[in-house]
Amino acid sequence: MPVSADRQKFVYDFTEGNKDLKDLLGGKGANLAEMTNLGLPVPPGFTITTEACKVYLAGGQEPPALRDEVTAHLDALEARMGKKLGQADDPLLVSVRSGAKFSMPGMMDTVLNIGLSDESVAGLAVQAGDERFAWDSYRRLIQMFGKTVLGVDGDLFEEALEEAKRAKGVTTDVELDAADLRTLVGEFKDIVAKETGRDFPQDPREQMDLAIRAVFDSWNGDRAKLYRRQERIPGDLGTAVNICSMVFGNLGPDSGTGVAFTRDPASGHQGVYGDYLQNAQGEDVVAGIRNTMQLAELEQLDKASYDQLMQIMETLETHYRDLCDIEFTIERGKLWMLQTRVGKRTAGAAFRIATQLVDQGLITEAEALSRVTGNQLAQLMFPRFDEKAKTEFLGRGIAASPGAAVGKAVFDSYTAVKWSRSGEKVILIRRETNPDDLNGMIAAEGILTSRGGKTSHAAVVARGMGKTCVCGAEELEVDTKRRRLTAPGGVVIEEGDVVSIDGSSGKVYRGEVPVVPSPVVEYFEGRMHAGADDADGLVQAVHRMMAYADRMRRLRVRANADNAEDASRARRFGAQGIGLCRTEHMFLGERRELVERLILADTEDERQQALSTLMPLQKTDFVELFEAMDGLPVTVRLLDPPLHEFLPDITDLSVRVALAESRHEPHENDLRLLQAVHKLHEQNPMLGLRGVRLGLVIPGLFAMQVRAIAEAAAERRNAKGDPRAEIMIPLVGTVQELEIVREEAERVIAEVEAATGTDLKLTLGTMIELPRAALTAGQIAEAAEFFSFGTNDLTQTVWGFSRDDVEASFFTAYLEKGIFGVSPFETIDKDGVGSLVRAAAEAGRATRPDLKLGVCGEHGGDPESVHFFHEVGLDYVSCSPFRIPVARLEAGRAAALGKGSSDTR
């Protein structure tokens, strides 16, 4: 729907907004307004709303009223500051910065020092009493403006800067003097003229207007779209633009810029965490182009600013009730706050911080659940390096994002993506990353940089994606042109050599280091108690969050398990029963031939012989399963294999017969078998003779399975056990199919009850995995006591996809083009498949109010899908054993968020 530009307010002063206006002002603008309201030292400025961006993106032009509104707010800013934008003798300079609702670090554009020109640079030098500072600010403007606004290749500016340092014989840009920088400005202007065909703009208002438009455009830049897909951020939100009066950290040794966290974003521990860089502007810190000092060292350099910063950090954390990420600048001893936001953190830090805030009385248990995610819990269950293993140590950097990552060394993003698509695991190694490296960072198992700290681009983005990252490994020399890394002692790692990085310790190793299970998995397995061997408090934090979730959730969580071993593991992981036992998995290996004989039987005697052989095997399977899950429900799905899985391969059989005929060898049995297979051969077995259809076509098949279930349950009950079997008929498309099978099953159950003297209380239901079943769910519920949604097949049949084929053929293109935000096999398609689930649930319960509803497709373990199933009103989800903790946590989060807790993305 087009955004109306009539009678809207598109610009807000920092004094007008607050932190609750993120939809309108973006996260950065809303938080600048909030800090202004709190009386913190924020440079004056104003914010252009996301609504203005939406109008621009929809029509390619700014709203007609926007220019006048910007002019009015700029006039007010100039009056407050006592200077004009870009005036010759005492120029006002501003920054133009993006700021979407959700944090997208480095993905969109920022331009500093807007207002500088050939004329005003001299005035800035006089005003500051520092000629070097003025020319350094001017070269930064041309470099940032040229790259982000005019589209000049940023490497051209970097090469000119590197050449200037080489000519001077220095290694850092702060060692270049005013004359060097003046010359560099001339070279930068020549680059702009050559690459764009126009001179660098000297009109300060033109600079600002072009920068605003560039920020709007950057919302749809490739890296921003890729990041949004990765983080599942909607593409229609737009970005705000923040115009802020400049304060300068590059005015000498009593100035600087930094990033601070109110707690360690890597571990969650309380303390002083952050980076500070003297004589620098903000982008220098996050870009990682110079190694920073730790924030604690600022106390020795400028105690007054340090003390003020610590007080402000405490104020912000208490106000936001969460870990805050803060950007600040010190201008000649004066502290200025440039940004705050709820900080990105590692998975372990998220769990620790949430429980710490509960203990401090800042948040409730329900709010704590909103601060963690199932994906983060899954990260904590990944293996870690074996500390006892023999290793070849290469060096150590800053532990920026934890995990154990092993892969082949690559030195650019293109190679990382290319090798990853070929099935290789890679470690992306760079001096420092920048937003253009996002593709490679996503493709890599982990990221290693020789520059930058915990607040560098690599660290912030890696933490947000849950990628292992080691930053600032200064002792490792990274040569991207020669594609090699050199460690102390002369050890060289060439591209393609395997390296291992430990994001928890910062250690880097040559070769592959073996891994051991995560302590969180050991906890869920019952091999570690919360508090024991838990020096960093992670297991205790996970234990508490799981307790919160279990107390709060409405959805029960079951397991997809086909044998007693998986059932026992699932029970240790917290499963409340089995939601899907796939009986076809019981007939693989040596038993496969028995099913083949049954399917191909020509006579009643052959069929009965096959069934009588299968019956005791099935019963034994169920006895073991009911024992492992005693007292909990076990949903057993009757046989549902695509037919070809239990028949000889028609090509192999044809070749065998042809060879026998050519050699005049006996082949009557193979020929008879080939004729039978030809008769049953299907072009599309997934839509053929399977599920309930197989049970109706092969007499006695389902009756044998029902008898095995009933006898196993009776044996368990007579042994003082508590079996709770549920029999599920697969692939039903019409109620008549279910009625026929149900009638037969009830007859068999009654026979077993009479013979064993037991009351089995078995229930019968069906899978809803076909669109017709969902659309006629009201009729089907007349013959079913429960529904279990088979969302894997339902997704295939709704979309017309063959999962095994389409994921490899065109899903990548669909994801890149934005047709999918995420694969519909990974997260349920709420609009299509989800609408059928919702409609079937409502229709089924309208017929049978006590109808039990569950889901047994792998969507049952997907965090986002669990929230949908909670909303629809299902009774349980079922998933693979190792996904059970994730489903439990997300079921608790769904209940907590339903009660109004805020989801702090």
UniProtKB/TrEMBL annotation:
PROSITE patterns in alphabetical order: PEP_ENZYMES_PHOS_SITE (PS00370)
Superkingdom to which the source organism belongs: Bacteria
Domain PEP-utilising enzyme C-terminal: start-end pairs: 541-891
Pfam families, A to Z: PEP-utilizers (PF00391), PEP-utilizers_C (PF02896), PPDK_N (PF01326)
Pyruvate phosphate dikinase AMP/ATP-binding domain ranges (all copies): 63-291, 297-348
Occurrences of domain PEP-utilising enzyme mobile (ranges): 424-506
Catalytic activity as recorded in UniProt: pyruvate + phosphate + ATP = phosphoenolpyruvate + AMP + diphosphate + H(+)
EC number(s) from the headed UniProt entry: 2.7.9.1
Cofactor: Mg(2+)
Keyword line: ATP-binding, Kinase, Magnesium, Metal-binding, Nucleotide-binding, Pyruvate, Transferase
The family this protein is said to belong to: Belongs to the PEP-utilizing enzyme family.
Protein's name in the database: Pyruvate, phosphate dikinase
